[in-house]
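Write out the bound-state structure for DGJ.
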Amino acid sequence: MSITYHSQNQILHLHGGNVSYVLHVAPDGSLMNLYWGRTIPAEHMDPSLWAYRSAASFDGRINRLPHELPTCGTGWYGTPAVGVTNAHGDDVVCLQYVSHNIYPGKKPLDGLPATYVEDDAEADSIEIILRDPLTGLEVTAVYSVYAETGAITRSLRFHNAGAEPMTITGAMAASVPLHGQDYDVIHLKGAHSRERMVVRTPVGEGEYRIFSQRGASGHEENPFMALCEPGTTEHLGQVWAVNQVYSGSFLGAAFVDNNQNTRLSMGLNPDVFSWLLEPGEAFTTPEAVMVWSDAGLNGMSHIFHDLYRSRLVRGNWRDRERPILINTWEAVHFDFNEEKLLDIARVASELGIELFVLDDGWFGKRDDDTTSLGDWFVDRRKLPDGLDGVVRKIKDMGLQFGLWFEPEMISPISELYQAHPDWCLHVPGRARTERRNQLILDFSRREVQDYIIQVVSDVLASAPIDYVKWDMNRNMTEFFSAQRAPQRQRETQHRYMLGLYRVMEEITARFPEILFESCAGGGGRFDPGMLFYMPQVWTSDNTNAIERLFIQYGTSFAYPAITMGAHVSKKTSASFAMRGHVAMGGNFGYELDLSRMSEADRETARQQIQQVKQLRHLTQHGVFSRLLSPFEGSAVAWQFVSQDKREVLLCVYRILAHDQEPTLRIKLPGLDPDAVYTDELGNRYNGAVLMQSGIWLNLSSSLTSAAVRLTRVM
Ligand code: DGJ
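---
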């Protein structure tokens, strides 16, 4: 069992891998967090020795205590993990421990994405019930700890066991007090086409916040935040990280209190969320994944990658090698006919590409982005033989077929809008804010969900489709649902997410053989919530190989390479070969008009495709480590090592070469030190030497790259 209860000191010890997470039931019944870090014998902790030491102060005791579930109104002054306004109108919540229950395995979260186990031995769980005696609010904190890695998940279940309604105003899935304030905070900041840039800065004084109010996790921030010791590198140092398994608005914060301790928290964004809880009703928060490592930032990422690849992503595609694809978007945008598609497909097939993806523009009357979202029937002006006709012709060339949808959207110029003008998010009497000429369907409404499930299913059943790109190209405005009572309007954003998850669950379950890729104007919803339904994500609309190095590097902090779509396109001054090396860092594909490529590029593409087919088991299922950061220098490097350490792929990129650029010397972690490796030229290397002394590479001119493949011979 990786969860132990020590009754002598009321300690609950969650332990897995080399990690301890120690909770304590205080004498007044509140739940404290004593420790999160490298394994300790928690049974020897004496909470009275340090947790209550700071009792006397102007602020009183409560603000100085390491609460696990901080609440409002009894002397704690930070962002509450549990915020509730009761029927009398006050926000006071006083939670007291009632009981706990430890069990093997991990239960699913009803209607929400979550990590899972396949065997009960993989993780243990504990549910700790606390109650506010006056109002009858019951909060169950649900934790699981993975035995091998020590990754911990937490979600909160609110239950109104009282006689009067109450309103949830704050719900932080993670809220962890850490000792001291000497930390750097790391988060992934961005914009459309510049997603997940790594930001690292001392946490400082006060509160450091990241958030989305957009109704999507968003381009601007990712629901990921880490604290680390200031000297932490990619390979050394302690890191505490949280990532919320959720695709909507969120709040993450690192708060340094006046006792010089730091609280790391993440949850639903209280600025755009509240939830009315009638007597007898319950509400479950999304899950937070909490990862600790003292093996630096790569150590943290390895735990996230392993968990997400194997116990977040589901379905038939989880463990399969992903196909090499050609996507039509950057090749033709909306301007195509069947002839043009077949021209591209012919070259794709001849080059060895496996999947042809027809992007936007195949439905309604969509010749540009002003119309037709919602009209999911084929445009016979462009495809006279229908979808089935073009699919079969492309399949006859030996390619699989994929199709683009944007199911959450509606164009004001569409048949669907004419039939159901009230089906979009809007506030009656106000203008409906358009972005990219489109409005958002109100997925919080059951009939809208049912309609989309049906109409998308009908298209998918109408032709042998192997892949779906599920796009979403604008953020929410007027988050108001026409049929909801005023006191429940602040539930709309979250209810939308629950509706979206229901739709995705239904459709992916109906078509288990289809490979789904999510997308949101590129990487505007690259989060663990989406990965639960769709095993890969279009990483960014920015396909410039050099800028992609930054984007893929940042994305890899939490997300494994197998989840990142990465395509070779025309957008860059880097060579075709270098663009290929960058795209090999994710799920490989092309996004250009193959029928217009030069013969030289075609030949390079042919070689790239062969190489990717030989290497993708390694890039998709191997251990990925970051070695040189584009955020810190002009050379970038990362590597993939197979789980058995027999195969290594080192990818190195020179973005900018200065005059007299020194030779690169790169250490390769995670190899077998006792083995001998050989490269493709037959040079032999000792494992320990590669790990400790490194490999020398001469990449001395700008925009060059190398992919070095090593194989263990002894
Ligand atoms: C945004 C996506 O990120 C692109 O790849 C493309 O699918 C367009 N939408 C199509 O409208």
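---
The longest helix spans residues 599-621.
The mean pLDDT is 96.
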